[in-house]
């Protein structure tokens, strides 16, 4: 059963592996998709969400679900902000950035998982700055679950990375990840070990994903 968060289809992975689609392949697809989301520090699927971002008094807000499709509302200190005071035009949307057209955003930062106004208020207050928006890509999993949500807009290199990672996870099932070689009599086999710092099972997938990793100040 596909999940909306799946970044590729089990049928594609099964075809690459030369095996039938079964629950094992589906689990590897979903596991690979979760690993990729964690590696990149972002949610890929399109959704309408509310975030309480940290701005640190800068003119840019970085939201967690690029590309930005539309800003529904921005609430600042409990007041609805005029949409004419900010923009996501041009390349801003692709980077998940909301630009303040005048001055800067209020000086907010993350403290203990909440967002605080670091100058005016020391206690956690999500109402300090709240952004409701639609963002993210339409994933293969979302279209598989609901065809009307299509077409797929997920970049091809992200989908390819998910296929590679799912295949690597499937091939590695039942093997101790700490064992790099096995032998029995005249038979022996060696497994490629992960390079230092490598987080995914597929090194090629990790390279494909490098441009999509979000880095933010916490």
TrEMBL record:
This is Phage gp6-like head-tail connector protein. It comes from Corallococcus interemptor. The lineage of its organism: Bacteria, Pseudomonadati, Myxococcota, Myxococcia, Myxococcales.
